[in-house]
Amino acid sequence: MIKVLRTNSKNQNFIDLVALLDTELAIRDRENHAFYNQFNKIDQLKHVVILFDNELPIACGAIKVFESEVMEVKRMYTKPEGRGKGIASQVLTELEKWASQLSYKKCILETGFKQPEAIALYKKNGYRKIPNYGQYTGIENSLCFEKKLDMFDIE
Predict the structure, then answer these.
(1) CA atoms of 8 and 110, how far apart (whole Å)
(2) Which residues lie across from 2 on neighbouring strands?
(3) What is the DSSP string of the chain?
(4) Which of 7, 39, 46, 100 could tie 149 with a disulfide, CB 3.0–4.6 Å?
(5) What is the mean pLDDT of residues 12-32?
(6) Region 14-31 average pLDDT
(7) pLDDT at 90
(8) What's the predicted TM-score (pTM) here?
(9) Amino acid 29: pLDDT
(10) How far is CA 148 from CA 4, 87, 89, in A?
(11) Which CATH number is 2-148's, of 1.10.10.10, 3.40.630.30, 3.40.50.300, 3.40.50.620?
C-alpha cells in the first residue's frame, strides 16, 4: 500500500533517500558532481514529500521557493525497485499540489542530460523545456523545465 507523507528535510527517511540519490548522481555526473552538489543542500527544505510502499520509504522529492510565485523542484529520487511504476509521478504531483495550495503559480526544475529517465518523467508530466536559469545558465549538461500550476484545485 502506498502512503504519502508531507514533511521537511529533517525527516530521516528523506535524508537516507537523498544519500542514495547523491551516490547515484556521483556516478552519473562524475567530474561535474561537485558543481551540481553545491546547489542541492537539503538542510533548509521546508516542503518534502516521501512515498512509502508497505511502510518502506521508496521515493522522495522537495520544493523550495525560487521566486515570489515560483517553486523549484529538488531532490527527486525513486529507489530502483520502485522505478517504472508511476511512483515518481505521484511524488511530483504531490509536490505540485502542495505548491499550488501555497499559492505558487509554477514549478521549475533542472536535470541533466545524463538523466534520461528524469527527462522523460518531467515531459510525461507536462513540463516544458525552458532556457537554463540562475546558476545553470550556460551549463551545457543541464536542462531546465517549467510547469504552470493553474490546473490544481487548491481546497
Answers:
(1) 21
(2) 53
(3) -EEEEEE-TT-HHHHHHHHHHHHHHHHHHGGGHHHHHTT---TT--EEEEEEETTEEEEEEEEEEEETTEEEEEEEEE-GGGTTTTHHHHHHHHHHHHHHHTT--EEEEEEETT-HHHHHHHHHTT-EEE---GGGTT-TTEEEEEEE-TTS---
(4) 100
(5) 85
(6) 85
(7) 97
(8) 0.90
(9) 65
(10) 23, 21, 16
(11) 3.40.630.30
pLDDT at 26: 78
Q: What is the mean pLDDT of residues 98-121?
A: 94
Give residue limits of the domains in the chain.
Answer: 2-148
Distance between CA atoms of residues 128 and 126, nearest Å:
6
| CB distance 75 to 45 below 8 Å | yes
